[in-house]
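Sequence only, no structure available. Ideas?
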Amino acid sequence: MKNPFHRLRPLRREPPLSIRKTLKGMGVKWIRTIDPYDVEKSVDVFEEAFESRRKELKVIISDAACALEAGRELKKLRGDTVRGGGRWVERRLGVDEDVCTGDHSCISLNGCPSLTVRNNPNPLRADKIAWIDQTCVGCGLCGEVAHVARLCPSFFQVDRVENPGWVEHKRSWFRRHLIRALAGNGATEGAGTAASQYRNEFSLPPSVSFRFPLGIYVPSIGGLGSGVLLEWLSMAALGEGLFPNVMALPGLSQRAGRTLSYMEISDRPDARFNPFPEKGRVHLIVAHEFLELLRALEEGYGGPETYLLSSNFRYYTTFEKLSLESDAYTLERFEGFIQENSHGALLLDAYAGALGGRLTNAHLLGALAAAGYLPLSRSSCEEAIRRVGVEVDRNLRDFHVGGGMIPSGSDVRRATGAPNRTSLPEPPDARWTAAMAEVESLAGAGVRPILLEAARQLAEYQSLNYVRLYLGRVREVLGEAREKGSPMAEEVATEFCRVLATRMCYEDVIRVAELKTDRRRLDRIEEYFGLPDGSVYDIKDFFKPEIDEFYGLLPRWLGGWVHRMIGHKGWSIQTGLHTSRLLGFMLLKAMTWLKPLRPYSFRFEMETGLTDDFIRHVKRCTAISPEAARLAIDGGGMVRGYGHVRKEMVARWKEFAALTDAAQMRSYWEWFVSGRRFGGPRR
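Reply:
I predicted one. Tokens follow.
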């Protein structure tokens, strides 16, 4: 994966003092120069240094530009090239939300602040998944690390071509339409698609009263561009004949450091400006990040006359990213606190619909203009964007999208973040309706939504027969628990149904190929990266499957023989497929045709054995205590990931499954969900 910063090398000036020549002059003989963005070659050099028998000083020179500085230089170079009509390729990285299993191994090896986590769109998976936010500069290091470390195939690369040639444009148009035709319309509505559709509901009073001067407090995070937002607001206020004053307190302004800005809009030119916000008297708080909104309210800046605008986007600490524990700072937990400290609130879902986590300043400005929190018209805000001159076309598009998020009229309610599902799908096959009814009688009606979602995903994963196998397993466990006088509570039974479904939807090359060739995936990529119809772009997926992923598809007897012969080798195959091109797409599509043979494969037999072991562990613990049963069910979610990561997870789950004492299980589980599991074996 060649990083995009190589374009800057011809522009770099050689320093007057060479590090290599200086070291040679000092007598150092073993000197190597690496490009840190090329992880595989860098690792090879470090291994050479550690394994060398020469007992002398060894020096490795890391020669590459800072990603942030290079990103800024590339932005200027891109602007000059595109304005001059030259061809430009802009690179971005992404994570497939359906392919990521939430094991967070990629984050444990990469400290990039742009590689973060977000809520899992799959209702059957509770843990957060990896996510690359819009501060990414496209260095490609996250995908390179995941690729070299053989973590998972979730990462992909998108190269968008600006000012393409006529032939390139026509070729791209033909490929895109042909691939969409081959991909079809997709199966039944997928987990990622279904769960990412959220209602935009807000607490918005019918009318907003203005008492000048209007204080606007903007707590933000370095790198999110709060200065541009304040500049737009100032220009829009001047366009309305008002008088703005701004005070910025930048703090740690580079990446993820807190920044505080304050402005006042007055109706008189001689109004006295208070450069610091007065607690409890602020008219509007605009927060780019949800935790900064809560911090501002906790510090007392909110009040009964204060309006709020924020999103649910969060910057997570490294420990929070590694942890599998639930997020402590969510809208659901703090909704009452927000209501008590505001007169009206716009709480936008940064991950809903086409936003995909990229809630920009222009989105916020559009929402403000539509909500009427400030005496600024839409036309004055649009003119402000034009006058400031920062990426005018894109920001105007985002401005209209942000305005469209706010419902018209005064009957507006608070955002809940609940999936927009007015009705759940009914069982697609009447032959197992009776089995589902029996499960409901054993566990309660509350288990039905998870059962339906599990049945839909399992039918899409394999077949309706697979759904019947799932329901039979659920019925067996719940029925036996009731017969032995220890019936599962509805909440515990629901969790068992969820975890069992995820264990049966194990990740193999067939599943990954299905998700990578799904038409809905192309739609998500185009929406997230803002690729309108007619854009020229290339998608490259990176794979490094281990050899067992392939012989696992063989028939049971043959796969077992191959496993005994070479299963211990740990070989892997490194490849990158351009899935937006016909050859790469068809290679993956051909893998999906093996789905009917999956139940007869060696991998299926192994996974069935692990699932049966999980069920037996749940049964043993259910007979001991409800707490042990719940821990056994939660522990079943340990098994996830791809390649050697999954093998490690299976080994840890087997250690956990050997326990039945609730105290010991709780101690092991708390160690696993914390980030400490990446620090080595448990002691």
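Residues 480 and 619 are 8 Å apart (CA to CA).
Hope that gets you unstuck.
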